[in-house]
Write a structure and sequence with these properties.
about 60 residues
Length: about 60
Amino acid sequence: MRMTEKGRLLLHWLGILTLDAKELQQFADSMPAHQLRSVAQLAQDCSATWQQLATQLQRAARRSP
C-alpha cells in the first residue's frame, strides 16, 4: 500500500484515527460545549463513510482469489 498515492493516503488516515479510549475521552472532555453537537454529527458522518469503505473492502475480499 505504501507504493501508491492512494495507499499512502489511506495509511495516513488510519494512522491519524488510531486513538485509544483514554485519548478519545480527553478529546471529548476538551471540546467546547457549543461545538459538541456539530462535532458529534461530523463523527457520525465519518463513521458512516468508514463503514461504507469497510463494506466495500469486504466485498472485494470475497471476490478476490
